[in-house]
């Protein structure tokens, strides 16, 4: 018996044979790790381990580490992934053998200009763009941006008091989302947005739609079936709606045009810093030297990650194309938005549930930054207990629960062969809660990050911003905004629990964020 498809006569036995071949190959493909002698959860054809992972990838990877050890394999849809939490192997891959693991996995459906964001770039292109924009995140530039953040913090402090008086409690994530959007709009694009008071602002509505559209159904189809994804990519199918992409492109275009007309080269936002990079990078001799801030531990970490790589591999590229500027401006928003507001929400929650920590932090703030105008990049960089608190929050609630790399050259690591084109992931959440590294790991304890305790621990036991030369370039900015907002709020208020405060936090299945918002009481300090 036969039937016709597109003019071709096809028999049912042929269809059955083809289906059997496809199913057979898929079953064989899912034995990839068993054939290598690597343990891991049993995958299902086509979807791999994704069904389990969608129930909470942070909890699941932690469960898998306990069950299968520091190296195991799983399938993200149909793609095999090596999951490694052995810190010496992590160090080898991210630092020592970085040249073999320089890139992130390529996802289909390249949406202009999202295909030019730093996280998507590869090899020399990535190195060139990173070299150009790295000075935009120096201590000198952060000091300039801190002035803008202090202005956004004025509204944040005011709104916490207003809502507490009106409602008797505050939904902290709501307020921090708005504050983060305002701060990034101002520091990234030079745009004055008041999403804290005007949620209907076009920038606010399009930004929220952008966050919702990042992982759309089209993206899921393309990731599950790479062949279909390539066809979609060929025909220009985008994961981001043309309306949203067009809005952000026009925002950048209008901002650049306005600067040219007004001679706004002295503006201090990230967009202007990228535009200025062309001039500053023309001559090494004329480039401003980065300012060293005593006690700035994160600048020291960044220097160690970058100097061994970037200083030895200079790039001739001094400017960015328009699409590269578009891409970096947008990733500045995307990467910073979730990281900053989520961390701030947990800072206030942990302070409210640990009043002795809050007392100690307030004491440091009163001594080091007693007034609004005392708050800036230099002052917060020197506040050791503030840093301890923020680092402990990022240990318990890391913004990135997984860090990913792709192998571009077959590599043997600790006796395990990682073939070329393999994907490698580091389960940051599981590492951060490993009792062998962090005694009583579920406990909130900022003392873990005293100088003595840091020195006695593996340097990669804490990596919420990744590790090695491909770490998060915006680490300094994110830490600065988190710390500045925390200091400004604690200058005026204390945080306390209220009857609606969930203890412990009830998390949503996807990501480290509460299932609902977090309610706290805000008490004005006398």
From TrEMBL:
This is Thromboxane-A synthase. Keywords: Endoplasmic reticulum, Fatty acid biosynthesis, Fatty acid metabolism, Heme, Iron, Isomerase, Lipid biosynthesis, Lipid metabolism, Lyase, Membrane, Metal-binding, Monooxygenase, Oxidoreductase, Prostaglandin biosynthesis, Prostaglandin metabolism, Transmembrane, Transmembrane helix. Heme binds at residue 472. It comes from the Eukaryota. InterPro entries: Cyt_P450, Cyt_P450_CS, Cyt_P450_E_grp-I, Cyt_P450_sf, Cytochrome_P450_3A. Monomer. GO terms for biological process: prostaglandin biosynthetic process. Pfam families: p450. GO terms for molecular function: heme binding; hydroperoxy icosatetraenoate dehydratase activity; iron ion binding; oxidoreductase activity, acting on paired donors, with incorporation or reduction of molecular oxygen; steroid hydroxylase activity; thromboxane-A synthase activity. It is a multi-pass membrane protein. Belongs to the cytochrome P450 family. It is found in: Endoplasmic reticulum membrane.
